[in-house]
Structure formats: C-alpha cells, structure tokens
Amino acid sequence: MSPSRPVFAVAVALLAVAPSPATAQSTAPKIELSAAGKRALKPLTLSTGTLTVTNASVTAAARVAVNGTLRFKAGKRSANATALSLTVGRTSSYVAARLGRKNLRLLAVKPTRPPQLDAARGAVSLAGARIALTPAAAKALRTALKLERTPSTKTLGTLSVAYAPTPIEGGSPLPAPAPGPSVPPAATATPTPSATATPTPETSTERPPCDAARFTAAPAGSVDWLSCDLPGTRDLFSWTRYVLTSNLPVCSTEASSIVASGGAARLLATHAFDHRFPVESVSPDGRTLQLRGTITYAKPSLGINEVIRDLRIVFAADGQSGEIFASGLSAPRQDTCGTPSDAYTGEKVMDFTATRSNGYVRLHATVAAGNQRLGGGQYEPGRPWGSFTFPER
Fold this sequence. Notes:
8-stranded antiparallel beta barrel
C-alpha cells in the first residue's frame, strides 16, 4: 500500500461490521445526606452534582470509577474531591478521591446489606450503604477550608450505585468477520476469544502459544493486542506476569487478576497476555481507529489497580508511524497501600511504527515519552508494549 493512500482501505467495511457502542445498565451513584448527617457536617455543606460510572472491575471485590465531583463548602471557601472511585471489598469499602493535591480515602463505606457482585457480567450493586468522612479526609478538609475544628466522622447519609455492562447484540463481544477474502488458513487454528469477559482462576503466567499465525488472525472489525512474542524484560509481557505473580500480601490477601470487559476479550481463556478489541469507528480519512473495551490489572496484595480503556490509534500522515491514546486509571507509584489510582481521559500512552505483510497491518507499540500511566509509571519511554494487528483489506 502506498503511504499516500488512506491508511485503511477497509474503513467502510470496518464500520459496516462494527456493532453499535455498548451502553451500561446502571443507576448513577447517589449520595443522600440525612438530617443528622447535615448537622454533623456543619459548618460544611456537601454537593455532588452529576455522578456517573465510567467503568467497573468486578472480581472477588469491585472497583468502580466515577466521573463527577464532590464539593465541600464552608463560607466562601470550597474544596473539590475529584478522580472518584468506589471500592467494595470483603473487609473494607470506601470512596477514594483526590482532594487538593492529596490522594486519599475520602469516605468510609459500610454496607447495610450484602453488595451484589457478579464477576461474570462485570456487574456491581450497592444499596443504602452508610457513609462517613475518614479521619484523613476530615483532617484534610479542616486544613483546606481553614476550619476551627475537624469535621465529624459520624455517619452522614447513604450511598447507592448499580452498574452492569449491556451485553452486545448476539451475546458476543466480537464483531463478525466481513464478507470477502477470508483470514489466511494458518490462522484458523488460533483459539477464538471467549465471549465471557471474566478472569479464570487458572490464569497462567507461562508464555502462551505464539506462532506467526496469531499476528494475522484478527477478523475484520477488530484489533488484536499481543505481547506473547516479547522478551519479558521491562515490557508489557513482564508487566502482565508481574501483576499475576504471587507476592507476600502487604496490602490485601485478595487474589490478583487481569480482567477484559466492555467488549474486549482474551484470545486464550487461560492467558492474559493477548486481547482483542472491537473497532467502534474509523475516521473519514482512515487514519484514526477508535477501539472499545477495557483491561483492568489488579494486584491487591501490593495495592495496584490499573485500568486502560477506549484505545485510540492515530496514524501520522505518512502512514508509517503514529500515537495511541487511552483513558483509564493509573497509580504513579507501586507497592503503596491505600493510595487511590488517578483517573485520566484521552492521554497519549504509546507511540508506534507500522509494518505491513500478508494483508495485515502490525503496529509495534512502545511506552510514550513522559508517560506515567502504564505499568505504574515504572517503565522507561521506548519499552515495548506489544503489537496491535488488524486486516488491511
């Protein structure tokens, strides 16, 4: 293909087979202050504005990313709590946030009835849980708002939320192959990704099968993200293995997991090194692919919770290089118990160079300069972060 042509000759075909965006069956997070809670909070007032769930990771516990702001006000002074996330665990539940320059546990959450967690559907429901400021949040608010006394840590009211991804039509997270030339015969032996976006207890840290056919197996309307061929030293493969490897439980005894959801799926059910994403849209000039799906890396034993979602591939004008953008959650430091992850939206996370062979495009992705989102910010710019492959025709 000449670089002067649109990068994707199949833009129209991709759009024809891509399913409509998955929506979420959810009840927006709702905080209700009781009369007693309002009295306990004085001289502060709390307003929530509109809160929405942006994504959720559900295993034995749930982590729910929330878009919106909690505003605390005292007189003319105010303090905003942003980057909100709700954790519902076996031993503790809480709302984490960024308050000023601090990341902290903002609200202690005490369920009044058992929360409903469904890992198979990626669903979570919490109704009428009691909430209260944590001591750390109360102290931070006193400083930020120059209060004469530390706010109360008594029960303020209740928190309710429900979230469940809507199944894509037909029950499969993958679009069907477009009519026309078929995938090369050698690719037919590649296992089809599971339609269930859940972790399996026997997830392997061993290298999965990685023959050449795996790099020419993505059907039209999808993109595969593979790390199986990487050396496993300071790259996406080693990060994946690190998340899944057992460690002394410093922060929690909950098991590690890597979960594909929101349309993304593993290529092999027992390995979390390679994934497939549906193509949601292609720009008119064929240079930008918007993918759909979420990968959540959770290592509770060391306090790690990292999410990457809504990948966007953008080619440069020459069609030989480009950038990859994403949204999600990240933690700037590893091995830090109780530090909530930061939410980010549409940030550049990788660079890539492109090669073309046998009717497939392969993007060789690396960690972008200045990036602090991938692998807890512990991987230098230029480190390999896998290959993205998709059919050119």
